[in-house]
Amino acid sequence: MTELKTLTEFQKDALKEVGNIGIGQATTSLSQMVNKRVWISLPDLKLIPLIKVPDLVKNEAPVIGVILELTGDTKGFLLLLLSKNSAKYLINLVLGAVNETETFDEMEQSVLKEVGNIMSGTYITALSNFLGISIGLSPPLNIYDMADAIINQIVCMMSRDVEDVLFINTEFTINTEKIDGKILIFTDSASLSKILDAINRISGN
Amino acid sequence: MDLVKEKIIVGIADLVVVHNPAVLVTIGLGSCVAVSFRDPVARFGGLAHILLPAIEESKNKDNPLKFADTAIEKGVEMMLRKGCLKNRIETKIAGGASMFSFKEADMQIGARNVEAVRRKLQELKLPIIASDTGGNYGRTIEFDIASGAMFVKSAFNGNKEI
Lengths: 205, 162
Known about the structure:
The complex is a heterodimer.
Chain A: H1 9-34, E1 38-40, E2 44-49, H2 53-57, E3 62-72, E4 76-82, H3 84-95, H4 106-131, E5 135-137, E6 141-146, H5 147-158, E7 164-170, E8 172-174, E9 177-178, E10 181-188, H6 189-203
Antiparallel strand pairs in A: 1-8, 2-7, 3-4, 3-5, 3-6, 4-10, 7-10, 8-9
Helix pairs in contact in A: 1-4
Chain B: E1 7-9, E2 14-19, E3 23-29, E4 33-39, E5 44-50, H1 68-81, E6 90-95, H2 104-107, H3 109-123, E7 128-133, E8 139-144, E9 150-153, E10 160-161
Parallel strand pairs in B: 1-3, 6-7
Antiparallel strand pairs in B: 2-5, 3-8, 4-5, 4-6, 8-9, 9-10
Helix pairs in contact in B: 1-3
């Protein structure tokens, strides 16, 4: 398989469209979970060298990271990053109470994992159903540490075989509260080729 | 003259060698390893930020600064070119954590980097005078070339000087 180095405008648009289908579903499921309206921004989508990813995130502050590994036809990771305050806000919506501490207890951590799980699960399921390819997800892991360091480890894990990644960045809002968080998807260019092939099949090209 | 020392950011798969005074900074090391070099007499120092153990294990060999073995060679070469003497170069290392793991192999990712760095430095007979490696948390490194002090900061595991 040839490695993709750039995306054409058509390919970008197609990926955005397909991504929106998943995002619509993820929004609905998060909305049901917290019982509030949720808006998710249109994704920013780039094919970039893996080692440039940290430059786009630059954040030394500790954040909550919920990480899932992509399995099946695609390789990569899905990462949900939330600031401490936004994570506590979400927990409060789900549990109706929150500890005003600097850390997250077991119950709070499992809420965050569940948020990550539900959002990425619906997103990825919608995507793989639509494209007719198999994309699976590992169970979520969560971690509370410097955002840069979390991304640094993902870069290390992918860098042996991967030069360029499809980097998808989405932001979201609940009610009127802007959630200080991001959803990042890292996938290698071989997986990206499979996704683009599937898009071509569907669009009859 | 401003006495605040210039801070230079060393990115991932990057290597910087400079003269006194300067502070070399690398932010948010996870499984990557930072290796510092310093010749106290020539007053040069450097910092490399490596992400993989060895160049021959990788498909893509375009960037030698990604790998422990080739980045350390390059770092020493740059130091020597600036007039440093090999038998005066001291090194420190930090990073190589395993913050999360989906499978057994992920646990080893930081440890393998640290091991590769140690092996290469030993092969070149460069002493490691201090280190702070492993664990399950990220680190930010500041290396002061003037004093040779390396400051290691973390989110929840304290800050230290090595």
